[in-house]
């Protein structure tokens, strides 16, 4: 069972949104991934695995390569070598829309909602990338985030930061992903809003969607994760279950302090 942030009452009680019975049985594997920007190499052979049912986090200081890892996995920047796969399906080298159709959905840093479009229109943007269950996934998103249903005709740019983060997560869910990738979902949000967002992430995972979470807030990441990787200057320098990593004083001082 996942540990939870403060006030994740719904998960503790075992309550969930409408059951859509999702089940992912394949693993997401990133193997020896290298990527960068021009002549600057930001990832140096990063390997990690997300098993079905897991929340796996990647933590580290600013500039460690965390966002580059997700962007390369989703095809937003080109990997120079290495592999990204779900089960026996190779995704490396595919266009971002093909990777989305292959089962990876990214919630980007900064949310990136389309401000002049309504909430509903932002969600509908994902329809072309969705594979099945579009109407069912839309219903689930509105069940999970009632605030979005209340504001479905409101312009996305007029939403609060927390509501925009809910919209960004909902937009990814509409694609019916096999794996959800999240880049700094707590960034810029008040603590009470962070708790609500992470409660929702736990509910999503509890419904069968594994996650790869990039998060600078190490304590928050450790509270929800089954397994953690520590990234430093584009290299995985440590990995393990959260309790082991968080109790390693030398590791905390060198890479997480």
Topology:
Blueprint: H1 9-13, E1 28-37, E2 40-50, E3 55-59, H2 66-73, E4 79-86, E5 89-90, H3 96-101, E6 104-107, H4 119-124, H5 134-144, H6 146-150, H7 161-173, E7 179-183, H8 191-206, E8 211-214, H9 218-224, E9 227-232, E10 235-240, H10 242-246, H11 249-256
Parallel strand pairs: 3-8, 3-9, 6-7, 7-8
Antiparallel strand pairs: 1-2, 1-4, 4-5, 9-10
> What spatial form do the alpha-carbon principal axes imply?
globular
CATH level-two architecture:
3-Layer(aba) Sandwich
* E-strand count: 10
Order of helices and strands: HEEEHEEHEHHHHEHEHEEHH
CATH topology: Rossmann fold
CATH class call: Alpha Beta
Strand order of the largest sheet: 6-7-8-3-9-10
β-strand percent reads 15-25%
CA radius of gyration: 17 Å
Q: Could you tell me how far the N terminus lies from the C terminus, measured between alpha carbons in angstroms?
A: 27 Å
**Low-confidence segments:** 1-18
**Helicity, as a percent range:** 25-40%
Annotated CATH homologous superfamily: P-loop containing nucleotide triphosphate hydrolases
Largest sheet: 6 strands, mixed
Q: How many domains is the backbone divided into?
A: 1
Q: For the residues shown, what is the average pLDDT?
A: 88
The DSSP helix count reads: 11
